[in-house]
Amino acid sequence: MAANIVSSEELAFINTLMNSTTQTVTQPSLGFRIDGNSRTRTLLATLACRSTLSLEAEFGRFCLSFPLELSEDEFHSQHLHMASPIIYEHGPRLRAWRLLLPQPLTLLNAEGDESMLRVHELSPYGLLVDTVAEQEPPERFYLYLPLPGDTPMPITAHRVRTTENGMIAYGFDFSSEEDAERLRCFLFSQHRNLYPELQPEIPDDLV
User: Fold this and answer.
1) What is the per-residue pLDDT across 182-200, written as a single tens digit (0 to 9) for each?
2) Phi, psi at residue 19, to the nearest 5°?
3) Which of 72, 96, 120 is the last residue of a domain?
4) pLDDT tens figures, 127-148
5) Do 54 and 16 lie in a common domain?
6) 7-51 per-position pLDDT tens digit
7) Record's superkingdom (predicted)?
8) Domain interval for residue 126
9) Residue that is last in its domain, among 64, 96, 128
């Protein structure tokens, strides 16, 4: 996948535009009209059909990958729609950034009661939990994640492994892209709160 690297000012502009989309996932994603000749439009349409498009932004030790979706209106104009990013972190190997929760979030059942599982870390692909009960954690579960400031999000996950310190890692099995997007919105918002230095002042001519 080719990377399109953006500057800090361009990333700040993207973050400002994304402000509204981090408030609720029911709002439409950002859209940009694509200008170009027929050959360019055909090439872009072919790439979109055969691969996954994304906008890559490298900033410090983080890599933000914004998913892109191509659409065409009734006038055959192409538009790229940008969703909340998947955040990666550089280290010994590139991996999805994990949000370390200051306080564990207890997963809820369908009735809103607390389950035995508490979430300590969260990423776009899974979560790290412990259990308040002595019984064996489930191989799979369908529960609700109480995101702060939002309604609980239904999640299905499968057990991956047990860590050296006794935590249990689960991988998400999202039933819809909307759920995955909702989680990315939350993580993007939390990342921006934790690393405000990645949000430089925006020049007036970019607003």
Assistant:
1) 999 999 989 988 988 775 5
2) -50, -45
3) 96
4) 999 998 888 899 999 999 999 8
5) yes
6) 666 666 666 655 544 444 444 455 666 666 667 667 667 766 776
7) Bacteria
8) 99-173
9) 96
